[in-house]
Amino acid sequence: MTAQSARKPDLAVLMAAPRGFCAGVDRAIQIVEKALSRYGAPVYVRHEIVHNKHVVNRLKAMGAVFVKELDECPDDRPVVFSAHGVPKRVPEAAAKRDMLYVDATCPLVSKVHVEAQRHHRNGNQIVLIGHAGHPEVIGTMGQLPEGAITLIETVADAEVFEPEDPANLAFVTQTTLSLDDTAQIVAALQRRFPQIAAPHKEDICYATTNRQEAVKAIGPKADLVLVVGAPNSSNSVRLVEVARRAGAKDARLVQNAAELDFAWLDGVSALGVSAGASAPEELVEELLTRLTERFTLNIEEVRVASEDVVFKLPREVA
Hints:
Strand content: 15-25%
CATH topology of the largest domain: Cobalt-precorrin-4 Transmethylase, domain 1
Order of helices and strands: HEHEHEEHEHEHEHEHHEHEEHE
């Protein structure tokens, strides 16, 4: 075989930036690591600290024990609440048991909680735009008495929603939604209820916004976009949807390099790559390494924003 015939085909790789970990995810992981360092193993974690199996398995190996509910935790060991936030009843139950608990809720999710509580105090009926069953939505709805918040998932929901008093209405949103989908839902609500109170500042977080804008920048140039992330990660799934809408011929979610099917790359000359906010960069690097088995990669970073956000750690682990 000649050197020429053995040469791997070229593949243009457009790397979306920013991608991967956001400040809230980074803070949540640090909280578990520092709790293990300060208090020793085991440290209990209610729900996945972030939606990524790679991260969860690494923390398990360090001594973290992941549980679904607080009643699975002993009284005498620390428990960490996930980055997605928890209903108010959870820290209240922990306090009743004199448990040491550390709240790893992302500060930008906490901001939504505070907004919802403020609207409730002001006598407003609250609409939450989000996805039913997502831990963040459960946590936000759990800040207030049952029935105080109405969940709206789609434009169709917004069109049939009938508030008790259209003059006393406010909306908040999940932080990891599609910007474009949310804008359509908000537009429908504002058209029907012009007096509806909006957040002072956009609830969809900076990291979600930046990652979606970066995918929009690479989508039109890509035959295929691969998003590294978990299927239960809202922001990762949204990136796949955004890539398709932006003009990518195809877009797929992969949890890791092992899930890559080289058949997807038949006829692909330009590949876009991004990662959800809970996916570590090492998983992206492993994907690129796997691609080099078949291709000579010509990598170009497409950056739409720079991020320097850092959130303080809670005093229990700082």
